[in-house]
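for ur thesis appendix - Cellular retinoic acid-binding protein 1. copy paste whatever u need, i formatted it the way the template wanted (i think)
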Amino acid sequence: MVEKFVGTWKMVSSENFDDYMKAIGVGFATRQVGNRTKPNLIVTVDDQGTICMKSQSTFKTTEIKFKLNEPFDETTADDRKTRTVVTLENGKLVQKQSWDGKETNIEREITDGKLIIHDMGKRMSLYL
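the 3d part is after this line
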């Protein structure tokens, strides 16, 4: 049920985000900015089932629009060009990104009224 993710989520804390960015190849200068950025995440769903996730901060705003289970091209906040698919698995939104022979899986789940984002392989957690 995607509707539970709809809303505006404010970042309160971040753990291991620098390690996550290092692991996916983000350069030092971009990591410095990324570590200081506390974006809002705005999630909407339209009548056709298209999901929009907008990450909005004073540094950069990025937006992706997609339908569940349909692959699409994504340009990430750190300018990686990925082939991405988002699925709903066990109540979690799972975003699988592939680029240059690499892959990352970002999971979003609602726990105790908070949106928690993590990448199991990189142990990055954001609490919004």
